[in-house]
Amino acid sequence: MDKILWWGFYFLTFYAFLPGIFSRIFGFRVFSRGITDREVALTFDDGPDPVYTPKLLDLLKRHGAKATFFVVGSHAEKHPELIKRIHDEGHVIGIHNYVHRSNWIMRPKTVKRQVHRTSDIVKSITGERPKYYRPPWGIVNIFDFANKGSLQIVLWTSMFGDWKQRVGAERLYQKMRRKLQPGQVLLLHDCGDTFGADHDAPANTIAALERILNDGREMGLRFVSVDQMIETTAQARANRTAARRGDAVAAGPAESASSPAVHRPSWFKRVVVALWMKWERVFQWLFRLRSVGDGSAFHYRVVKYGGPELLLKEGEVLRRGDYVMEIHFVNKMMYELGMTSRSEVHTAIRVIQKVKQSLPEMAQELADAPHGSEIKALYGVSMINRGSEGLGFETFDLPKGLFSLMTNWYLRLLTAIIHPEGRTRVKKHGERLMPRALIMRRDVLVEWGAKAQSEPRSERRPQQAKVATKTSAYEERMDFSEEEPVGDTV
Asked: Please, which pLDDT band fits residue 252 given cuts at 50, 70 and 90?
């Protein structure tokens, strides 16, 4: 039963839940908001529709506005003349699957076939393959990021429920007007024939949009397609980067070095972190994790090792089926360390110190843990593994496969959440954020417990203070570098 829960949790988390967070909250591999002075991107889903798409195209043409149409392949197949008109009038065509069905309930191969089939249909009509993809309801699974090839996933900044006729043209206009500002990617619909939609709802969309186009012109806004928005955003980011580099040079190295980093998370990130901590408590309850010490830094559970056979030092072998103490960092602690550390190196050093301080308590758990006398090793997976050998850990690459893939995604997400610059780190150091298995033999862990018991209390605190004050020497011994990306443990 425990295995069923574990794999069910893994499936829901890694196949659907985490990719959704990655894409919607952290913008991983998706485009959903522009950085512009005047541009607003109009996007329309579910079409083409033989009644409403022509009316919408007429409206856009009168106002000189461009848009992006994410078309359903089966609709495009029925109305090739509308696809041709959309293309000929300078709008961008994207893919919205062949049928309007959630990617969460389709196999990866099925999604891939739907995307390719729709791409073939559009190419046969326009001579060009679409470059943009929007999954129905914006729901992605873990394979969407890999399966789309050269397609850019596009989500949205604001949507308005315009697929329901009861919203009404006036209310829809008011909702859109509140969001009318540069950088917005507006989600609208030009077809009401999909599940949950009302057939004539696009009439309200067209009526409200005409007023929005007039308001936008008076505000000096430009209504553009997604490709124009992406290009403008890329240029704005390049300009910002150049400006920041110029400011850093002007400030001088002395001023930069003497100014400590102050990490003030936005209210949005604080909400995300709070939700994640609740999610972590569900995980702890579901898998009956036990606390190490006061539970502020580590939890653990005793499980049977399920990986490949590993040859440890002193000739010991860790085999499938051996009991291990599986260690989990408390992510609240990781978040607080990240928010109060001066640098990547400082965070990593403090994490290693936390592990060092907790090892004697982990050793004490051997007496009370289930199957405690049979536990063969301490086991964890972490991106923070440099320097761990000095504590007695042995590190191993994770075997390639589903577990390695899901663990990598999970730890990248944690890095994006708990570190002040996590999203930047994931993008910048993505190829270097590789988790490794950390294993400590039982006899080494027991030695940590014995050492703590034999060491007088009066000698422990000065030693900890000494370690804390000699950061540079500790840093040299641990062989960290300033560019070392920091991740969390499982």
From this structure: very low
